[in-house]
Amino acid sequence: xxxxxxxGLVLAAEAFRRNGETERQRFAEGLIxxxxxxxxxxxxxxxxxxxxxxxxxxxGIGKGPMSNPRxxxxxxxxxxWMRALNxxxxxxxxxxxxxxxxxxxxxxCRKAGDFIVQYSLRESDGIDGVLRHVxxxxxxxxxxRISIYHQEGRQCDVYQPRALAGLGYTAYTLLRFGQEVPAxxxxxxxxxxxxxxxxxxxxxxxAL
Length: 208
Hints:
It is a single chain. By secondary structure, the chain is mainly α. Helices cover 53% and strands 11% of the residues. It has helices spanning 2-18, 22-40, 55-58, 75-91, 99-120, 160-176, 185-198; strands spanning 72-74, 121-124, 127-131, 134-137, 146-148, 150-151, 154-155. A 3-stranded antiparallel sheet has the order 1-4-5. The chain has a two-stranded antiparallel sheet with strand order 2-3. The chain starts with a helix and ends in a 10-residue tail after the last helix. The model has no long low-confidence stretch (mean pLDDT 89).
């Protein structure tokens, strides 16, 4: 929800700002700030981000699924979380009173990106260091923490672009703020681009 909703709120706030609709802009910004406050609680110390929180259900109020267990992550959902926060950081980049707020967003997204890169790179079609769509369960023994996503009975990277987008948006945002992109991200971008290109069919479709 946040991955789709927050960028939409940011685009709305920017439209209101450009049109001089201050009251609507401030209302949208209030929703953005409230969402970001909740999103930041989803990240653990390791850098991983749980997919869903549901505090009412956790407290026994209402019906539905509980919050995801801590220590179990999906890198495509982490990427969606990162992308949304980068929209917010870019929106507030020229607002002086938001300087510390934005710096924190840059820091948590870099931390999440480092987590993805640390655990998600695998060989693919003879190319080493390719970003894969993986589940990461830090509560399991080290040799059983990583599981490559399966769909329709086979390993599948159909949601890999979400993880890649999170890393790409974070790299772009860091550069816009004059910060360095972690050095080990660049080989990942190159290898993943080559891996995806290798899966591209003659008609332009990509069989992830």
